[in-house]
Amino acid sequence: MVRVAVADDQAVVRMGLRALLDRAPGMEYVGEAADGAAALALIRRTRPDVLLLDIRMPGMDGLAVLRAIADDPGLRATRIVVVTTFAVDEYVFAALQAGASGFLLKDSAPEELVNAVRVVAAGEALLSPAITKKVIGMFGRHGTEPVEGLETLTPRERELVAWVATGRSNEEIAKELVISPDTVRTHVSRAMLKLRARDRAQLVVFAIRAGLSV
After folding, report:
1. Percent of all residues in the chain with a pLDDT value above 90, rounded to a whole number
2. Are 62 and 36 in contact (CB under 8 A)?
3. Mean pLDDT, residues 31-52
């Protein structure tokens, strides 16, 4: 069972998500919160696998929640999907840096939302090519930064980390490079270990910070 919680200041959004997740096979709805402080308390109490988090909330907003979770080793196991009204906005890269595993539009189809929860619970990133392109453009204006462990990557691992930063899946990368998805998965996994990346979303952040591109 994937245990899911929701943090959103709109009651109608929480009600809709609860109704959807309650009837989704293999999922357990463990609670909801209407603001950031309540969201943190909810996570500490229920330890969900995935939190669907509104980035704009009164008082303590979603970014502050993300940073608080990242600063607390006891909470880092919870994966965060930012649920937003807009596909890309000024919060995207900040949310990724703070620990978000992906983004989802509030008007996404029900099956997309359920699949998003499953994808993130499995440790994957939920980042479309459109979002990663926007993030790369935003960060590109500020130059590159050192990334600890980057020098330990093999040329192939660096190449595949750069491909991950395009938002493509292992299967899509494999098709582009004419190699097997298992080969992609192996190199990406090794790169994540060397860079100590929490998940694929954090690997995207590291690639953008290091200026890796294809």
Report:
1. 48
2. yes
3. 95
Nearest-angstrom CA–CA distance, 153 and 17: 41
Within 10 A of 93 (CB to CB), how many other CB atoms are there?
Answer: 22
Residues 13 and 55: beta-carbon distance below 8 Å: no
Measure the CA angle with vertex 96, ends 93 and 97; round to 5°: 85
Give CA–CA dist 27/7, Å, rounded.
17
- Binned at pLDDT 50, 70 and 90, residue 182 comes out as very high
Question: Which secondary-structure segment (H or E) carries 48?
Answer: none
Residue-wise pLDDT for 76-93, tens only, equals 889 999 887 765 556 777
Edge to edge, the sheet with strand 2-7 lists: 27-33, 2-7, 50-54, 79-84, 102-105
pTM recorded for the entire structure: 0.78
User: Is the Cβ–Cβ distance between 94 and 63 less than 8 Å?
Assistant: yes
**Nearest CA to 87 among 126, 36, 40?**
126
Answer whether 204's CB lies under 8 Å from 132's CB: yes
DSSP assignment of 55-94: S--SSS-HHHHHHHHHT-TTTTTSEEEEEESSSS-TTHHH
Kindly state the tokens that stand for 43.
């996570």
d(CA 95, CA 79): 12
